[in-house]
Write a structure and sequence with these properties.
five-stranded mixed beta sheet, YaeB-like fold
Length: 100
């Protein structure tokens, strides 16, 4: 019964995904396919939380900091403070310029 409660609880909780102004600006410059992948990532973060194991090259960068690759040359980075429902995406763009 506890497992069922945990599953139901996970479906009820939705995270708030905030995107910085810098990310919003960068998204306008990216290829459409990368933008589509970012939207899919943001929706997954909203629904499942900050851990995104099924994304390519997903990794934890430190306490509450994460990243993954959206395509070979593009990545996304986000933060999540434990005990909150807010996830902030602070970088989307070229892997070369990623703020890991």
């Amino acid at each position: 019964m506890v497992l069922l409660y945990e599953i139901m609880e996970q479906r009820i909780i939705r995270y708030e995904v905030r995107v910085t102004k810098k990310v919003q600006k960068n998204l306008r410059k990216l290829p459409p396919e990368v933008v589509r992948r970012f939207v899919a990532l943001a929706e997954q973060l909203r629904d499942r939380g900050p851990v995104a194991h099924d994304w390519k090259n997903y990794g934890k960068l430190g306490e509450g900091r994460y990243h993954c690759h959206l395509a070979y040359s593009y990545s996304a980075c986000w933060t999540h403070e434990k005990g909150t429902i807010t996830i902030e995406v602070y970088y989307v763009g070229s892997r070369e310029n990623a703020q890991y």
